[in-house]
């Protein structure tokens, strides 16, 4: 399957993407994670991306599209993939369409995760991520680790993302509404959008997503 995941920051895209990718046996491709990996390796791309990310803005299309394309062309993505955080505006969606057309392949679904604004702000403010594996995510109040600052899964150090500060979150939400939400209309016109609520327990949302993908609604 080839799936695109959309939703506001804090809707739980990363958490759900990890689980869905495992169940569906397809690689989870997160442009946010790819950028963060470049930042920690201090590559040129990482240095460029960091300034945009810390401000809550989108990294320029040119570098983002090239990076996403490169990842999608890796052998493990041949049979399918779950895109998380890409495309994030209409011109990226158009670039993706172009790439897929060249390869003679199509998307199967665009999964739209819906969550109210006050909820996503709360989720982001308390979010703590493991330095060793970004799939290990905790929340200061909703799902605290057993030991403060330490990952339950692998013992890695937990940290708060630089762009999870309250001020940056506001910008990210605004960017989501103005630039990312329009891709839902773009994909709706192609009959690909499946909308589910991102509220409730993590397992519940995963179940809802798998059901919705199966029935295509
Ligand atoms: P979230 O969805 O929680 O905001 P991500 O990890 O997906 O978090 O993205 C973090 C940041 O990385 C974004 O705010 C943006 O600066 C950058 N980014 C990720 N994907 C893209 C993209 N497709 N285009 C441009 N910038 C991106």
UniProtKB/TrEMBL annotation:
In this chain the Adenylate kinase active site lid domain maps to 127-163
The annotated pathway is: Purine metabolism; AMP biosynthesis via salvage pathway; AMP from ADP: step 1/1
GO aspect biological process, one term? AMP salvage
What this protein catalyses is: AMP + ATP = 2 ADP
Q: Where does the chain cross the membrane?
A: none
Name the positions where ATP binds. 10-15, 127, 137-138, 200
Which positions in this protein are listed as binding AMP?
31, 36, 57-59, 85-88, 92, 161, 172
GO cellular component terms listed in the entry, alphabetical order: cytoplasm
Q: Which SUPFAM superfamilies match?
A: P-loop containing nucleoside triphosphate hydrolases
Q: Function, please?
A: Catalyzes the reversible transfer of the terminal phosphate group between ATP and AMP. Plays an important role in cellular energy homeostasis and in adenine nucleotide metabolism.
Q: Indicate the family of this protein.
A: Belongs to the adenylate kinase family.
Please state what the protein is called: Adenylate kinase
- Gene name per UniProt: adk
């Amino acid at each position: 399957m080839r799936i695109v995941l959309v939703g506001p920051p804090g809707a739980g895209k990363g958490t759900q993407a990890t689980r869905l990718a495992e169940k569906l046996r397809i690689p989870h491709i997160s442009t946010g994670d790819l950028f963060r990996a470049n930042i920690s390796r201090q590559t040129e791309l990482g240095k460029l991306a960091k300034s945009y990310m810390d401000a809550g803005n989108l990294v320029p299309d040119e570098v983002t599209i090239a990076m996403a394309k490169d990842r999608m062309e890796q052998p493990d993505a041949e049979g399918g993939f779950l895109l998380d955080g890409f495309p994030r505006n209409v011109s990226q969606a158009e670039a993706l369409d172009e790439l897929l057309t060249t390869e003679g392949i199509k998307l199967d679904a665009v999964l739209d995760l819906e969550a109210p604004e006050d909820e996503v702000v709360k989720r982001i403010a308390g979010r703590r991520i493991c330095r060793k594996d970004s799939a290990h995510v905790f929340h200061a109040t909703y799902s605290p680790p057993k030991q403060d600052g330490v990952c339950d899964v692998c013992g890695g150090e937990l940290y708060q993302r630089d762009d999870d500060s309250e001020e940056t979150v506001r910008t990210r939400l605004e960017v989501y509404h103005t630039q990312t939400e329009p891709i839902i209309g773009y994909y709706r016109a192609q009959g690909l959008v499946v909308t589910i609520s991102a509220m409730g327990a993590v397992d519940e949302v995963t179940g809802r997503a798998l059901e919705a993908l199966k029935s295509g609604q």
